[in-house]
Amino acid sequence: MPTEQRSADARGAELAGRAMVPTTDDGGRGGSGRMAALRSRLVTWAGDPLFWVGLAAAVFGVAARAWVIDGPMGIPDLDAATVATQANQFLDGRLGVFFLNQPYGGTPEVALVAGAFAIGGSNVFMLKLVPLVLHVVAVVLCWRVARRITEDRLARLLAPCIAWVFPAGMVWNSTKERGFYGIAIVLAALTMLLALRIDQEDAGPVDVMALGLVAGVGWWTTPLLAPVALAAGGWVIARSKPARRRLPILISSTVVGAAPWLVWNVTNRWESLTGGRLKGLDWLDGASAWLRSLGLLSGTATPWDLDRNLLPWWLGAALLGLALAVAWRRTRHAVGWFLPGIVIVSGLTAPLNLVLALSPGAPRYLYPLVPTLAVVIAVLVPHRRRGGDALWAVGVVALLASTTVWGLQGMESLAKYDVPNSFIASPGIERVVRYLEKRGHTVVTTDTAGMQIHFLSGGKIIASSFGAPRVVEFEQLALAVPETTFVLEDGGLKNAKRLQGWAYFSGTPIAEEVHIGSYWVISFDQRVTPREAGLVVYGGRPPPEAGGDDAPQ
Questions:
Q1: Whole-angstrom Cα distance, residue 221 to residue 219?
Q2: How far apart are CA 41 and CA 45, in angstroms?
Q3: How does pLDDT run across 303-322, given as a tens digit for each residue?
Q4: Rounded CA gap, 146 and 152, in Å?
Q5: Distance from chain centroid for Cα 297
Q6: How far is the C-alpha of 5 from the C-alpha of 9, rounded, in Å?
Q7: Average pLDDT for 503-523
Q8: 209 by DSSP, 3-state: which?
Q9: CA atoms within 13 A on the CB side of 173
Q10: How far is CA 226 from the centre of its chain?
Q11: Quick count: other Cβ atoms within 10 Å of Cβ 19?
């Protein structure tokens, strides 16, 4: 048929189609047309089995997070409450470059929490909403990354599904406001996406500038993002001639993104570079801890309890290495060493953060690797027969979701201990707050729970935390009150027993003493300082006194 005739027929069909669309009262047809297009798309989706697999994964991820939030693991811990306190300071105009009273942990995410509080009030719901939304953003970015790495439609679907439902520690972590880890996973995925875009599209200076800004903000946010930026940035510079030509733009924009970190450190003797070094620990200790922690990424180990595992740590690490090798083989023609490069650089640099050696069971240190992990697992699905996508999708999502359930069950068991790890649960902390409010206590001294008490009381109770001091004014006020009330954990510091023993041997009468959950509330009718009573902070050191050389800065 001639082109002119086809065009005339097409125009006639279009006019006929328009005539069949009911008009609105104002003569417009746009709304009905959009509704028809939406109905058509929904019908198409409904007939695609992969759509239902994706929907099931989405529902599972929501249900798993609801389980975490509604149970004993849902109470804001000391870090989350610190973020809430700092976010409220932001709303009062008191801005900070880093997480309260420490020289690292940039505050872009704290600013987001402050914005959430401005909209919905300072409460637990808004506090948890921010990391949840950030994880959703990271999931969408994972999908975009997968689209640039593989042509396989199934792998493109699986990548965001995996990032949403797996592994258990990262599902749990997405419900926790940690100050800078939520935005870290977004920046990690965005770094990967921008690097791929620059390489595949020979993108212009705007994309190079965006990559530099993201890398700089990432460095300010947390050094955990440096390996992702180094690997992705080095990869794109090596592969892309336009990127090499625009290297000055990349470097200068990175400096701009990291400007808050740089300015603060210039005026504070580069204090951010002094972290990560711990007496008695070296690079090998950090490397060993990182390898043992890989079970958290593979879903074969329980966060905070690496002895509860599906596989020995070395076998879990070996399987992850094998998966990385297979993923490289399947994607090497498209992106070369992009995926293994990120993991290898992360592994080589992770031991520099020796805090990891003290807590290899903490999933937060691996959180920025989730986008890479999701894509690696997604591209492992082998070539299959026509029509087999749905079965593979169901199998992969079901397998990974089942390991997530197993991991969360293990974590919930830990949370039900009489004295669990304080990052997992704080049994009784809400009852402690209600008790203090009922008794009229407005200033208390705690070893670790100060920020929780302050936030959960809506700011009505000023609570110091001499074991992890965050707000200098709180520490000074708690030491100045004429009558001291302590709230002390039952945990490893054993400060409650120390205080009770000191009171007994010194002949100091206890005015009030009650045990609530995993906490002791002990009051005196006189001023008692933590150092005077022989209480200790982490490491067994005496707590600082306000105004002394070791007072919190």
A1: 5
A2: 6
A3: 999 999 999 999 999 999 99
A4: 9
A5: 14
A6: 6
A7: 95
A8: helix
A9: 33
A10: 16
A11: 9
Taking residues 89-114, what's their average pLDDT?
95
Model confidence at 288, pLDDT cuts 50, 70, 90, reads: confident
Question: What single-letter DSSP state applies at residue 96?
Answer: -
Distances from the Cα of 462 to the Cαs of 76, 196, 466, 473, in angstroms?
A: 17, 49, 13, 9
Report how far residue 121's alpha carbon sits from residue 127's, in angstroms, rounded to the nearest whole number: 9
Q: Which amino acid is at 333?
A: H
Give the whole-angstrom CA distance, residue 228 versus residue 341: 9
The phi-psi region of residue 124 (left if phi > 0; otherwise alpha if psi is between -120 and 50; otherwise beta) is: alpha
Residue with tokens 């400060």: 495
Tokens 């603060």: give the residue.
264
Comparing C-alpha atoms, which of 408, 402, 342 is closest to residue 376? 342
Which residue bears the tokens 């992890």? 468
> Cα 385 to chain center, whole Å?
38
The three-state DSSP-derived secondary structure of 376-408 is HHHCCCCCCCCCCHHHHHHHHHHHHHHHHHHHH
- Say how far apart CA 104 and CA 260 lie, in whole Å: 11
CA–CA gap between residue 61 and residue 78 (Å, rounded): 25
Q: Which two tokens stand for residue 284?
A: 């090998």
Report which secondary-structure segment, H or E, holds 155.
helix 153-165
